[in-house]
Input
Amino acid sequence: MREILRVGSRKVWLYIIAAVIGLVTGYVVLSSPDSPRLQSEEGILDLTQAQLSTNPQKLTGKWAFYWQELLSPEDMRVRSAREGNQDHWINIPSSWLGYPLEGQRLSGTGYATFGLVVHLSDQDRDEMLALRLSSIFNAYKLWVNGELLAEVGEVGQDKHSMTPQLETKLVYFQPESDTLELVMQVSNFQHHRGGITKDIELGGSDVLTTKTNLNLARDMFITASLLVIGLYNLLLFMLRRKDKAPLYFGLFTVLLGIRSLFNGELIFTQWLPHFPWELQFKIEYLILCLSGYIITMYFDCIFPNYVSRWFRLGTRIVTGAFCILVVVTPAIIYTKFLLVIGVMVVLHMIYLMIGLVQAAVRRMEGALIFLLVSVVTLVTVVNDFLYFNGWSLVGNTSPLGLLIFTIAQLILLSSRSTRTASNEERITRELQYVNDKLIEMNMNLEQTVQERTQALSTVHDDLQTSYDRLLHSEQGRKKLLAYITHDLRMPLSSMLGYVEAIQDRVKPERNEQYLKYIRENTIRINRMIEELSFLSHLETGQVSYRMEPIQMIPFLHGFFEQYELVVRDAGLDFILDIGDAEDRRSILPVVEMDAKRIEQALFNLVSNAMKFTSSGGLVRIALVVEVVNHAPHAVISIQDSGMGIPPDQLEQIFERNYRYDRPGMGIEGSGLGLAICREIVQAHGGMVRAESDGKMGATFYVTFPCTVIEGKG
Output
């Protein structure tokens, strides 16, 4: 057995070494240029010996660099005439992060102007040329010979004045001379690395257009393939949920397909150019963080018991931490961790490949194919991380490597599914006869059980409804009894004292006054019992509401007209102030409510204002529409010019039986009106509060959620 394992292990390692050698060779071939690259020196690139119409050139080398300046072509010509040659140069493509300037290293955020002069051959000056610009972090303007040809995002001198955007551009122009002056303004305040980090190509319009279309077709093919494969596997899981391998593989592939939309030719931004830049980056980084964990779970489904418990727990913690970091922080922070995230993903793959080597040595089905495509994928992913950090010449290879990986996994899953389906068909045929008999026996039984179950369900629903009604009635009865016991003890005791005083003839001359007190207390107790009963029903949910959409402006007009004489007969001014809400007829606040109940609540507030406002005072009703938590609300305010409420008692006035009586006012009340008002308003999803400085007047605010509808004006 050991000899077999030793031989198998040797073959596996030979396959791995062959795959690595092939990938390294391919990398060397891809990274080696087809022809000598022409480099610019001190902002001048000589292309007089190149034929751009058939052989596009990358504008690499040293460009003029003006840090923290946004210069137009005219500004650069004036500066050049005044100060002579520029003395700061920067290699393109590269980020200005770490660029040494005046003894310091630049950070990734800031803004700058880049300049390059290109000398063309006589043949190219008569050709239609094009510039192909990849994504530049994170906004730029490009002038060619003083003409503005491209603008992506909005260039600014700080984070608030700029708008980031990533987009690939292909711009066309006809040179009028053998010299091109390129001026580019670039600003970045959102990403860790700012500047021109990818190649800019100059060539014939036909050649670059064809190349761009081929790249776009390649990216669309890879994206469509990944999405189709992923959705197919997710559909397989929906049909057969016992096997979770298609779930994880489908999620992995769909997420990679989505991520490919944000790379290469940036297909997503071409479809949705106004999609938020920050959200685009968060989606890309979240997919990157989740990919390692998802592929680990997929591997655990394909080859059980090869992923240790501690690694599964550790990868959950690390992946969750990185995902939280990406979600809660801006791009300027989490983009600094790109290399760390890359190391995390690579470590996942290396750990899995160690398990794959063990599985391949033990000749487990599909392990060797899984291992070889994982090596290919690992190399392409590592290359992409190196490329995005400026350490590799071959870029955006991971989509192709991941497509190869997904196709191989699709073949593996299909093989497993086919074998499983064959076994299931065989077992199904063996059990078919017995199953038919059982179905025949169960049909009658199921019908009987269904009928009995339906009858029991109906009885249960009736019992539940009756129980809920009894429970609410019992709760209301107990609350009402408790309220009556607590709240009527004092007035009844007072009445008993007056009756005994009359019987004992304590002061016969006051008998008439005592009888008046008894009558007033009797009326008050009767009113209190009604209010207590209504409040107990409100608190136990026994009050029904007839909810319907009500326009607030006509409703308040009707309320004002109904109670205007009542308030004015009390010697008070009564004012309705709709203000802008009435003038702007195109926007009418509408509230879902029971108009009668809300009228009752508002009258409690108005009568409360009347009670505490002396003759000649003012009661004012107003309506405004405010936005609370991104939703429109109708706010009704009832203001009086009475004696006010101490600020420390504003929270207590809505409690049952709370009364504030200022000495000398002689105001009688049950203390239940504001409590009833609060219960009614809260039942409508609203809220009620009061404001007062304790010296002069009080204002009660009633807020309801509403919809804003378009009126006819």
